[in-house]
From TrEMBL:
Any one GO BP annotation for this protein: methylation
The entry's keywords: Methyltransferase, Transferase
Biased composition range(s): Basic and acidic residues: 9-24
Gene Ontology MF, one: tRNA (cytidine-3-)-methyltransferase activity
EC code: 2.1.1.-
Function: S-adenosyl-L-methionine-dependent methyltransferase.
Name recorded for this polypeptide: tRNA N(3)-methylcytidine methyltransferase
Gene3D superfamilies, per the entry: Vaccinia Virus protein VP39
Family statement: Belongs to the methyltransferase superfamily. METL family.
Native source organism of the sequence: Magallana gigas (Pacific oyster)
Length: 324
């Protein structure tokens, strides 16, 4: 699944030049004087005032008042795979940038991270791809591999297996056609993680890390808890879910016009793909119900600025780490 259909959803920071200080987690550019707002293209960890919150709530209530019918909601659910396949057929691998911020926000994905020991049930299980690997990572909703390939390139470890799956067969095929795809260290497969009959090519308790970046938001809210419960079963004891997705009242939510709201905080885009906007409390509740322990649950507010047009654009993301 795609993280967005506008290129500014994630923070695509360039790699630091030699000798340049590495950008700190969640950024380090803070707006202390409002008069300086148009001096830079973006500011980190912006606090909202009460007026902004009231305006945002009013806007989302107006959207909800014109929500689509139950029949239309069911149609978008039934045809979800077709909409995602069409998306990737149109954009191929041209749409997304590699996520250079990954290893700043999630150092767990870098090299020199000690893997968790395999439990006995995994050691004794029938053969599966990556069974001999010492460390195993799964990305759910991998799209065209813009997280997977930076992980493989950064680690360059023959004892690492990176699994990646997507709802879209077109996206998975594009991953397999990538010049850096090697079945010895990467296994891509089509999977609808909301389907309790979906085949998963490795046993429970076999994964060190599961990555969910702008993916859970594309799933119907009533299926999210099942998905997190199922993914938690795949983690080794001590394994982690690394999560980043849209926060409530993000610019992308407030931009939706009438006729795009499916249900509260859940929308359909013009191309038929869907997106939900979370609160920290919702995620905390679902992930702890899945049996995981919170290590991080952070709301990341970023002010992006169009200096030429004197526009201010408020982005809201939530980043989490939960351990089994």
């Amino acid at each position: 699944m795609a993280e967005s259909q506008t290129t500014d959803t994630g923070r695509e920071s360039p790699k630091p030049e030699e000798g340049e200080e590495k950008r700190p987690q969640f950024g380090g550019r803070f707006l202390t004087n409002p008069e300086d707002v148009f001096q830079h293209n973006a500011w980190d960890n912006i606090e909202w005032d009460e007026e902004q919150e009231v305006t945002a709530r009013k806007k989302t209530q107006e959207q909800l008042n014109s929500a689509l019918s139950t029949e239309k909601q069911e149609e978008y659910e039934e045809l979800a795979d077709e909409y995602w396949n069409k998306f990737y057929q149109i954009h191929q691998n041209r749409f997304f940038k590699d996520r250079h911020w990954l290893f700043t926000e999630f150092p767990e994905l870098g090299p020199d991270v000690k893997p968790n020991e395999d439990v006995k049930s995994v050691v004794d299980s029938p053969a599966f791809p990556g069974q001999g690997a010492k460390r195993r990572i799964l990305e759910v909703g991998c799209g065209v591999g813009n997280t997977v390939f930076p992980i493989l390139q950064t680690n360059n470890d023959p004892e690492l297996m990176v699994y990646c799956c997507d709802f879209s067969s077109t996206a998975v095929q594009l991953v397999k056609e990538h010049p850096d795809y090697n079945p010895d260290t990467c296994h891509a497969f089509v999977c609808d993680v909301t389907d309790d009959k979906a085949e998963i090519p490795f046993p429970d308790q076999s994964l060190d890390i599961i990555i969910l970046i702008f993916v859970l938001s594309a799933i119907s809210p009533e299926k999210m808890q099942y998905v997190l419960n199922r993914l938690a079963q795949l983690l080794k004891p001590g394994g982690k879910i690394l999560f980043r997705d849209y926060g409530r009242y993000d610019l992308a939510q407030l931009r939706f016009k009438k006729g795009h709201c499916l249900s509260e905080n859940f929308y359909v885009r013009g191309d038929g793909t869907r997106v939900y906007f979370f609160t920290q409390e919702e995620l905390r509740d679902m992930l702890t119900k899945a049996g995981l322990t919170e290590e991080q649950n952070h709301i990341d507010r970023r002010l992006q600025v169009n200096r030429g047009r004197q526009l201010k654009m408020y982005r809201v993301w939530i980043q989490c780490k939960y351990r089994k």
